[in-house]
Amino acid sequence: MLTTSKELLLKARAGRYAIGAFNANNMEIVQAIVETAEEEKSPVIIQASQGAIKYAGLDAITAIVKNEAAKVSIPVVLHLDHGHDFEQNVKCLRSGFTSLMFDGSTFPLDENIRQTKRVVDMAHACGIPVEAELGQIGTLGTTDEPGVAIEKMKELMTKPEEAKEFTQKSGIDSLAIAVGTIHGCQEEIAKLDIPRIEKLRDITGLPLVLHGASGASDIEVKKAIGAGVCKINIDTRIRQAFTHAMRETLAKNPEEIDPRKVLGPAKLAVKEVVRGRMRAFGSSGKA
Ligand code: 13P
């Protein structure tokens, strides 16, 4: 059942669990996420980045998610992850996305507020909630070691003193916060700034979103949920599981030419990642 994220996140916050937001860019990954959510009786968010939309096509992504969501009884949200411009948000809304994100985090505060509010006004006119980012979460590049990159991002963490103005003036529904994670981290090395999360929760009163959570251990994730995080984004762990399983299958059977024999095990590997995250986030059994 396709639904919007607003009530789900409020319910998760009240129940002190978090909903996993899993990135998808092909049919197998979408199916793995939805099937697992149904098995776990968990609400779920499937998100597509602009890169995923460019790769798969907006119509294809929307159609696959709508099709899979219609088969299950649990709530499924289709969310735009890091929409960098107004136009992408409009296109996704029109296509049937039930949750949007505008990421103006690299702009100065005033410009971030101005552009975010424009997306919020447009989306709210259609009853669709919007997430936005304040501070910068960043992405692991090829030059720095993960630990060094995380250390460098510290000065770009979300500032509680800016958060009130940002959330009140923009009118957003949830806030993506920079609190010690970085996108693309393949090791569980993130140490989260829990007091900062608590301050952001108290100042904004909004559901908080943890990006770059592949690099966070279960212990860190649980502390973050206790402090007010109720949406947790996972991409890298899915990529790792999918491609490692493909490599393993092809290494064992180098002559295999049937894509189904290669992608089938990859899908199963994604299912186990999603199941593990749902249990760690406490969302299993909450649908
Ligand atoms: P990871 O790639 O670290 O899992 O982060 C995903 C994410 O935050 C997508 O917005």
Question: What is the CATH H-level superfamily?
Answer: Aldolase class I
* Assembly of the depicted chains: single chain
What's the helical proportion of residues? Answer: 40-55%
The amount of beta strand, in percent, is: 5-15%
Strand order of the largest sheet: 3-2-1-8-7-6-5-4
Q: Topology as H/E string?
A: HEHEHHEHEHEHHEHEHEHH
| Approximate shape | globular
DSSP helix count? 12
Radius of gyration: 18 Å
Find the CATH topology. Answer: TIM Barrel
The CA-CA distance between the termini, in Å, is 11 Å
Number of strands: 8
Derived structural class: alpha/beta
Proper CATH architecture: Alpha-Beta Barrel
CATH class category:
Alpha Beta
Low-pLDDT residue spans: none
The average pLDDT value, as a whole number, equals 97
| Major sheet details | 8 strands, parallel
Description:
The protein is 52% helix and 13% strand. It has 287 residues and is an alpha/beta fold. The protein has one domain: TIM Barrel. An eight-stranded parallel beta sheet has the order 3-2-1-8-7-6-5-4. The longest helix has 23 residues, at 259-281. The chain is globular, with a radius of gyration of 18 Å. The termini are close together. The model has no long low-confidence stretch (mean pLDDT 97). Bound molecules: 1,3-dihydroxyacetonephosphate. 1,3-dihydroxyacetonephosphate is lined by residues 23, 81-82, 183-185, 211-215, 233-237.
